[in-house]
Design a protein that fits this description.
Elements lengths: L8 H4 L6 H10 L7 H5 L1
Length: about 40
């Protein structure tokens, strides 16, 4: 077996977001007048 991590997360620069932050971001899209693109910015 190889000890090499083949998930690619580090190589592609993917971040692991905390669950609480994900929930906060999603909740922000439900605010009146908000859009997903505006929240993403």
């Amino acid at each position: 077996m190889s000890d090499v991590d083949t998930s690619g997360d580090e190589r592609r620069g993917n971040k692991r977001w905390p669950e609480a932050l994900k929930r906060e971001i999603v909740a922000a899209t439900y605010l009146p007048g908000a859009s997903v693109s505006m929240v993403a910015r």
